[in-house]
Task: inverse folding
C-alpha cells in the first residue's frame, strides 16, 4: 500500500493518514503531469511513478484514469479557493487586489492542467460528462468567492453578469498566457477592468 | 494534382485557379479536422482525404503538418475578420451588436481549432514559435477591428486596455462554450458588458 515509505515510517504514521498522504501526492503529481505533458502524455502509471507510489496503490485510490485526473483538478481547485479566501480573511477588499488574485487563479499550472482536461473532454465522450460536472462545481464556487470578495450585491440587476464577465475575462487572460509570458499586458488590463468594476459596483 | 476535379473541369478552369481551389479545400478541411479530432487526430493524410485531394498534392501545398495547420487557422481567421468587417460596412455601430459579433468569433469551429492548436503548441517546441507568431498577428488584427467598430478612441487613457479586456472576455466565453452550450448565459453577460462599455467609452 504505502509506496515509498519505509517500515519505520509505517509504524509511526497511522494507516489512515498514510493513505491520505498517498492520495494527495497522487493528486498533486497528476495536476503537474497534465500541465506539463497534456492528456495524451498523462497516464496513471506516469503519475504513480512521479508521485513515488506503486501502480497498485494508485489504482486502489483511483480505479480509472478519468477518476484520477478529474479528482486531481478538483482537489487543486479547492486548495486554490481556500488560499484565495485566506488572502482576504476580512471579506470584501480592495477591488484591484481582488481582481488580481482572481485572475491569478487562471494563470498557473492548475489552469494549464484544467485546460488540457477540457480540451481532451471536448473530444472524448467518457471524459466529457465528468469534466462538465466538475467545471460547473468549480465555476460556482469561484463565482461565490468573487461575489463575496468584491462585495458585489447580486440583488441589483446586472451585477451577477458583471461578475461572470469578469471571470470569463480572467479565463481569457489565462489562455493568453499559455504560450507567452503575458504578465505586463495582463497587469494593465486588470488595472483598467478593476476601475470599470469600481464604477459599476460602486 | 487536381484531386477530385474531372478532366473536363480541368480543361475549363485555369491551372492557377485549380491550385488555389485545392489549397482552400485543404485549409477548410484542416480547420474542421482540428476542431473535431484535436491535434493528435489531425494529420496531413487525414485532411487530404477529407478534402478529396491526393496526399501528394497536399504535400505540394504544405510540406509539413505544422505548415498546413498554422496556415489553416490563419486562413479561417482572415475569412472571419473579413466577414466581421462586412457585417458593419459603415464602420462604428451599435455597441451591443459589435460586442455580440466579436464574441461570436470565439464560439465557432475556428476557436475550437485554434484552441487545439494552442494547447498542442504549449507542449511541442516546433509548433510553439509558429503558433505564437500566428496568434500575435491574428490578435493584432482582431484588436484593430474591435477598436474601429466600437468607435473607441485609443488616445484616451485606459481605452486600449478596456478593448483588450473585452477580447480576453470573448476568449474566456469561447472556452466556457467548449463543453456545453453556454449561449443563454453568454447573451446576458454580453448585454451587461456592452452597457458597461457604453458608459466607459462614451
Result:
Amino acid at each position: 500500500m504505502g509506496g515509498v515509505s519505509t517500515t519505520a515510517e509505517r509504524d509511526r504514521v497511522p494507516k489512515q493518514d498514510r493513505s491520505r498522504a498517498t492520495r494527495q501526492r497522487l493528486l498533486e503529481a497528476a495536476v503537474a503531469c497534465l500541465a506539463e505533458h497534456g492528456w495524451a502524455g498523462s497516464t496513471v502509471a506516469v503519475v504513480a511513478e512521479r508521485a513515488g507510489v506503486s501502480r497498485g496503490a494508485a489504482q486502489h485510490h483511483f480505479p480509472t484514469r478519468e477518476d484520477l485526473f478529474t479528482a486531481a483538478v478538483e482537489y487543486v481547485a479547492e486548495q486554490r479557493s481556500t488560499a484565495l479566501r485566506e488572502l482576504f480573511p476580512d471579506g470584501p477588499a480592495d477591488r484591484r487586489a481582488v481582481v488580481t488574485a482572481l485572475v491569478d487563479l487562471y494563470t498557473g499550472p492548475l489552469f494549464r492542467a484544467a485546460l488540457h482536461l477540457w480540451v481532451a473532454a471536448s473530444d472524448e465522450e467518457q471524459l466529457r460528462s465528468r469534466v462538465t460536472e466538475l467545471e460547473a462545481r468549480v465555476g460556482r464556487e469561484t463565482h461565490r468567492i468573487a461575489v463575496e470578495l468584491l462585495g458585489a450585491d447580486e440583488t441589483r440587476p446586472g451585477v451577477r453578469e458583471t461578475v461572470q464577465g469578469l471571470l470569463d475575462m480572467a479565463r481569457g487572460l489565462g489562455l493568453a498566457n499559455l504560450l507567452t509570458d503575458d504578465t505586463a499586458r495582463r497587469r494593465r488590463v486588470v488595472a483598467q477592468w478593476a476601475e470599470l468594476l469600481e464604477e459599476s459596483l460602486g
About this structure: Residues 1-63 of chain A form a domain with the Arc Repressor Mutant, subunit A fold (CATH 1.10.10.60).
